[in-house]
C-alpha cells in the first residue's frame, strides 16, 4: 500500500525518461486499501484511493496531459481481479466507456 507521494515519485521518474508520453491511454487498477495488518475505515479507504488518483493525475498532467486515464479497473493487486495476460493488445474506447482485451 504505497503512499500517494511514492506513487507520484515513481510516475515522475518514469515520466522524466519519456515513458509516460508514449501511451494514449492508461488503465489504473483500483488501489488495494487494506491488508491483513491494516483495516482502515471505509472513509479512510476512500481517502487513500482519492490521494492515489490525485497523485496519478498530477504526474500525467506534467508528462502526458492528453492521455486518457481509466481508474478503478479490477486488475492487479485488488479484489475482485480481472486477469490480464501480458503481451495482449487492449482497445480503450472512452466515449463508449469500453475496455476490450484482445488475445491471440
Structural notes for this entry:
The protein has one domain (4-102). It is built from 2 helices and 4 strands. The protein has helices spanning 4-16, 42-63, and strands at 25-29, 68-73, 89-93, 98-102. It starts with a helix and ends with a strand.
The poorly predicted ranges are: none
**Alpha carbon gyration radius:** 15 Å
How many helices? The count is 2
Instruction: Give the overall shape, derived from the CA principal axes.
Output: globular
* Structural class by SSE content: alpha+beta
Secondary-structure element string: HEHEEE
Q: Strands of the biggest beta sheet: in what spatial order? A: 1-2
Task: Please tell me the total number of domains.
Answer: 1
Arithmetic mean pLDDT: 89
Termini separation (Å)? 33 Å
- Main pleated sheet: 2 strands, parallel
Count of distinct strands: 4
| Residue share in β-strands | 15-25%
The helix fraction, in percent, is 25-40%
Amino acid at each position: 500500500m504505497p503512499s500517494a507521494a511514492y506513487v507520484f515519485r515513481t510516475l515522475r521518474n518514469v515520466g522524466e525518461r519519456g515513458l509516460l508520453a508514449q501511451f494514449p491511454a492508461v488503465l489504473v487498477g483500483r488501489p488495494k486499501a487494506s491488508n491483513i495488518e491494516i483495516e482502515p475505515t471505509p472513509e479512510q479507504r476512500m481517502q487513500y484511493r482519492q490521494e492515489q488518483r490525485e497523485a496519478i493525475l498530477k504526474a500525467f498532467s506534467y508528462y502526458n496531459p492528453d492521455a486518457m486515464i481509466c481508474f478503478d479497473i479490477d486488475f492487479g493487486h485488488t479484489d475482485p481481479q480481472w486477469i490480464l495476460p501480458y503481451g495482449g493488445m487492449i482497445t480503450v474506447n472512452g466515449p463508449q466507456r469500453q475496455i476490450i482485451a484482445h488475445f491471440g
